[in-house]
Amino acid sequence: MSSLIARNILNLTPYQAGKPIDEVKRELGLKEVIKLASNENPFVSEKVKTAIKQSLNQINRYPEGSCFYLKERLAQRLKLKPQNLLFGNGSDELIDIIIKTLVGIDEEVITAKTTFLEYEIITKVNGRKVKTVPLTNFKYDLEAIKDKINKKTKVIFIANPNNPTGTYLNAKEVERFLKGLPSHLIVVFDEAYNEFVDCADFPDTEKYLFSKNIIILRTFSKVYGLAGLRIGYALARPEFISFMEKARPPFNVNSLAQAGALAALADKNFIFKIRNLILKEKKYLYRALDGLRLDYIPSQANFILIDVKRDTVKIFKEMLKCGVIVRDMAQYGLNTYIRATIGKPSENKRFIEVLKKVVGHRS
Ligand SMILES: *Cc1c(COP(=O)(O)O)cnc(C)c1O
């Protein structure tokens, strides 16, 4: 049988998603379960719900293939042209489209070792080679990445802020990195957590869109609260976008996602409230973790990487039994770390209670 499967798929470790709430309830017989495992938004915009309900009576029709209205609206917001935008079935699909469009069969991808695993997995699914470069102090090491570049290097994926560490590359570091790069490759900045950043020196990558070979990825899955609808977007020069358009499936973004994203863009008050809530709760969690004398990595995103100083899988399982789903970091090789999404205030409180119980028990 295995001789029938393509070799690049045969040996692939698939992406492990956060455990769904219903699955945990079913398996452990729990009534109340909170999920802080996938960096989702704990809330949904009421305006988004209304817009989606209104669009329901058109689900018999194929969606607008090009996301025409969304492109217009977002281009206006970003002071760009619709031709600078491409929407995808989540930014996951855009990663795939980028690889298919840009990385030739004998060309290679570079990314960090401890980052969003989809860069590596999707590259391998497409039968392309990927080099991974270790982080330094939990941060992307741009100098080490530069050292790995050769003639075959075509795309470099950089998550900024990085998942799962929450660390970021500042404006100066990005500027220096882009300056010395050869012109035969493209840098992809994945800015899924852009809206949660609260430092003053975060890079404005949009200013490089026309002078450097870069693509920016953003998503509606995080601060906009549409993770279940699957929609993200890429910003790039029209030349890149036009070829990426050729590589995308004709109806890749469904009509409910398009209606939801349009309404989400308009609901600025929701975004404002969520951002403020997450920043406030981040401070609460920092203080609580300090109280538990646990180390964590300061985060520019809606999650925190925490050193529980014990086996991550054990801690994950014990927290699960108490109805709190976090992410164990075993797949990332961070064997004593968990990643916890910042949730609603009540969820964060519960998380700290359970963490205290689970970590306290065993020390
Ligand atoms: C959550 C996340 C995304 C979003 O992916 P979607 O497919 O848009 O849901 C992208 N990149 C990173 C680094 C993420 O953590």
Describe what you observe in this structure:
The protein has 363 residues and is an alpha/beta fold. The chain has helices spanning 7-10, 21-28, 46-55, 68-78, 90-102, 118-125, 142-148, 171-179, 238-247, 255-266, 268-291, 312-321, 345-361, and strands at 34-35, 85-88, 108-112, 129-133, 153-159, 186-190, 214-219, 232-235, 295-297, 303-307, 324-325, 327-328, 337-341. Strands 2-8-7-6-5-3-4 form a 7-stranded mixed β-sheet, sandwiched between helices. The structure holds pyridoxal-5'-phosphate (PLP). Pyridoxal-5'-phosphate binds at residues 39, 90-92, 116, 159, 163, 190, 192, 219, 221-222, 227, 232.
Features:
single chain; 363 residues; four-stranded antiparallel beta sheet; 39% helix
Mean pLDDT: 96
The coarse silhouette is globular
Main β sheet profile = 7 strands, mixed
Strand order of the largest sheet: 2-8-7-6-5-3-4
Elements, N to C (H/E)? HHEHHEHEHEHEHEEEHHHEEHEEEH
Work out the strand percent: 15-25%
Q: Structural class of the helix and strand makeup?
A: alpha/beta
Number of helices: 13
What is the gyration radius calculated from CA atoms? Answer: 21 Å
Query: Which residues sit in consecutive blocks of at least 5 with pLDDT less than 50?
Result: none
The share of residues in helices is: 25-40%
**Total strand segments:** 13
The span between the termini is 48 Å
Task: Name every ligand kind in the structure.
Answer: pyridoxal-5'-phosphate
